[in-house]
Amino acid sequence: MNLGHQDSDGSKGVLFVNFNQDCTSVAVGTKTGFKLLSISSVDKLDNIYESDQVEDISIVERLFSSSLVAIVSLTSPRKLKVCHFKKGTEICNYSYSNTILAVRLNRARLIVCLEESLYIHNIRDMKVLHTIRDTPSNPTGLCALSINSDNCYLAYPGSSTIGEIQIFDALNLRAVMMIPAHDNPLAAIAFNAQGTKIASASDKGTVIRCFSVPDGQKLFEFRRGVKRCVAISSLAFSIDSMFLGVSSNTETVHIFRLEGPKEKPAEDPQGWVGYFSKALSAPATYLPSQVTEMFHQGRDFATVRLNFTGVRNICALAIIQKVPRLLVASYDGYLYIYNIDPTDGGECTLLKQHRLDGKIESLSSAPSTTNAPTTLGQASAAIATPGTSYASAVKHHRDLPTHTPPEKSPVSTPVGSFESSPP
Fold it and tell me: Which candidate, 132, 33, 151, places its Cα nearest to that of 83?
């Protein structure tokens, strides 16, 4: 989340914050430099690396748990530096025609997003492989890159007036398709870890949709709320794609469970039950489509009540010490770690909050858990197995005893013209 170009007072000096691709560390850009903090424990953040050689860091992206980082500073907003922080060496630097708004990395590609163009680099030698020019105006640098190198898809807005998602194959350098996701312009997009699903939200912020990739079929639709429009700041899948986290400028973070539709019974129920069931479903045949869609929109599985509102933040669903947790990093200079009840969902429990400067913050305002249901924290011994996922955590918890090269564009013509010239 790039805060360097936002109107804010910078009271905490935080200009950028983001998790790496597997949510094992958090990168923080500040007015004095940048730092990388390890999220290997709930109780503390370990300092991986800290640099004060360059000031006003507006973007710092780490490649998984490697020593490769991409850095952009407000002092030179058109210049990208790629460094090896353990060796203290600069691998390369590139200058672009306009301000760099976002950088995305996976093990095959590095993407640089400008307001009206995208540059695709080969991560091995940092050469520019492809340029997508004349894209619709994208002043926030909204784009997403799948972290899966095999399903290496790039997504970006296909329109500045409606919510179209342009899908581009960054590995084979070809357009894939355009997904008509929302009536309003896009506010957030995110791939799952496998690169087979993409979630989206518009600037209205009331409905979250999930589509399959690359065919663009709508899989899920969730309603975040109906009372007010909000600014969605982040979408985040769990590593096994079973859950989706959504954060915004409100005090609530929503977690949705991605479940397939339940199978209908082979025969209609008989008697009075069947009669009333048919009577209740009949209005769906003549109500407006916007109304009938609401009957099929899923509700959140779990929620988090933040102790602040109106502050930009980013969420992630991570595995810490083999237990699923919800992470929220915000511009107020803190990282919040929450527990999740995998069986019943509901309100999540605040476990710890850390200052993003790495200093320990005492937890003085954690919600009371006197009458709370059994949580994953209490079941950690039972689910602490290698490769633990959200789905397996739920299963184990339920089993516990009860206690108190460029190709021709195939499908559709993408938005923007394509070139192979360097920036």
Answer: 33
